[in-house]
Amino acid sequence: MNILAISGSLRAASTNTSLLRAAATLAPSGVTITIYDGLDDLPHFSPERDVEPAPDSVSRLRTQLRQADAVMICTPEYIHGMPGVLKNMLDWLASSGEFVYKPVSVISAGPSASGGSRAHALLFHTLEVLTAHLPEGASLIVPSVKMRLNGHGEITDPVLAQELKSVIDSLVNAVQASPAIG
Question: Could you tell me how far CA 99 lies from the centroid of its own chain?
Fold first, then answer.
């Protein structure tokens, strides 16, 4: 089973990306979690640009999403919302349908006690509009994230490690319960 993990942050030392890397180490046997690294390469969305052939970076993203059995998205919160680069990516996917019925987990992490809850809510709603399958138990808000990781981005909080494992398990169960599409 292949899960594509997307961080909403472009920062090299992003705690959101660190959480996705940690999730990859927690995945059960037979599950591969791959980190998408092309967010910064996507052009600004405009409906006039959303034609065939799509820009190369958009085509690569769409292909990776089609090949993935499920998706994990982990986002920080910027000005009470999701980062513009993440919203831009989702805009590129609105007309092409890669998220339709695809199991997707929504994770937000932030340094405050809210853990990026506003960005989480916006991302969740946007994915609902894109008709993603948002399995119960595959959603997680991580408050005070910097206190739960060490300087190398590794999880130091066993509760967080268990929560991430539960998110992965929910995603895996959703994929296994889904009828084959196509």
Answer: 12
